[in-house]
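Final report, closing paragraph on structural work. Over the funding period we assembled a curated collection of sequence-structure pairs, and we close with a single example.
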Amino acid sequence: MRILVFNAGSSSQKASLYEIGDSLPLDPPEPLWEGKVELDGDHVHIRAKNSQNASVEDYLRLPSPGGPIYLAQALVGLWSGKALEARPPASIDAAAHRIVNGGAEYRDPAVITSEVKAAIARMASSAPLHNAVELDGTEFVEKRFGRIPQVAVFDTGFHKTLPEAAYVYPGPYEWVAHGIRRFGFHGINHQYCAERAAQLLRKDLVSLKIVTCHLGNGCSLAGVKGGRSVDTTMGFTPLEGLMMGTRSGSIDPGILTYLMRQGITGAQLDETLNRKSGLLGISGVSSNMREIVRAMKDGNARAKLAFDIFVHRLRSLIGTMMATLDGIDVLVFTGGIGENSPEVRAAACAGFGFLRLHLDILQNARDDGDRDVAARESEVRILVIAAQEDWAIAKETWKLLASRPTSAV
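Its predicted structure, as stored:
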C-alpha cells in the first residue's frame, strides 16, 4: 500500500510517500519520496527528493499574496517540469493527514468523511495555525487524486487517556460541557517516542515511566505510564505549557485581562501570544534555538535570557511530569531542538543529579541518530529519538485501512 502523508503547518506543507507491504517493519523506513514547501513572504521555498537520490530545490515568487492554498499548488509543481526527476510514483493508494485537533468527537484515526471534516472545521478556533490548513490539504487531494481513501490521524489522540484531574480546568465545571478541557497535542510523536524508547531499551513499554520532551518551534511534554499518556503540558490549544519559538506558553491569565482593559483586542492578543512571543519575543533575535545559542555565545544578553527562560520552564515541567508518574525511568528528547541542541539537553538534565539522572557529556555531543546519552551510572536512561511523525501517521493509516474489507480500501 502506497500512502501519501501530508503534514501541514501555517507556513509549510510537508508530504512523504511510504510503501508498506503485508506487515509493518520494525524500524522506520525511508520514504519513497518526500517534499517540503515553505512560505517566505511572497515566495515559496521548494525542496524534494526521492529514494533514488534525485532531488530538486527552487525558490519561486507567488503570483499574489501567499497563503496555504499556494503551498498545495507549489507541491503539485514538484511533480512536473524541472522537478520531474524527483517526482513520486504516480500510483497512490491512500492519503493521510496530520490533524492537530479533532475535539472530543474524534481521537482515533478515522477515514475522512463530510462529518469528520465538519468536526475538524469546528475545532479550528482552538488550533488556528493548523486545522484550516489541514482541511485545505484534504480538498487538494480530492482534486488531484480523486476518490482515494483519506485518513485523519489526530495529534490529540494519544492523550485521550488523560485522567479527569489532568484534563479538567479549575474554572466553572460548566466549561467541560462546552468542550473547554485539556486536549494535549504532539500526541503522534509522543506515542511514537514512547514506543521507540521501549524498543531501544528492550523493555516492555507497560513497565516504563517515560517523560517525552517534544521540543521544536512548538514544544510540549508528556508523561507516559503503562504505555498511556497520563499528563501533558499543552492544553485546550497548543499555546499552553512550555515557552516555544514564537508562542508564549503558559502565562498569568491576569496579564490578558489587564491588556484587554488597556484596549488590546482579542485578535491582537492572539497575534502577540502565537507569533510574537517565546524565543523570538524575548531574544529579539530569532525563534530558532541554534541562532539563539549562537547569539548567546557572542554575548547577546537577551538571547541568553531567552535560553535561560526556556530551560527554566523545561526543567520545571519535567519535574511536574516526574511527580505525576511517581518517578521516571526514561527521559526522551525529540523534535528540532530536542534532537539538535546538546546545550538544551545538558542544561535541562543538569538539575536532576539528585535523582541519579546523569548525562554523558561526550555522548550528548554526538550526532548519530537514535541513542542513549545517559552516563553509565545514571539510573534514568536519557534518549535522543528522531521525530518520525510522518512515518507514525503512515503506520496508523495502514493499520486502519488494512483492517477494512478489500473493497473498501
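The CA atoms of residues 100 and 213 lie 18 Å apart. The mean pLDDT is 88. We thank the funder for supporting this effort.
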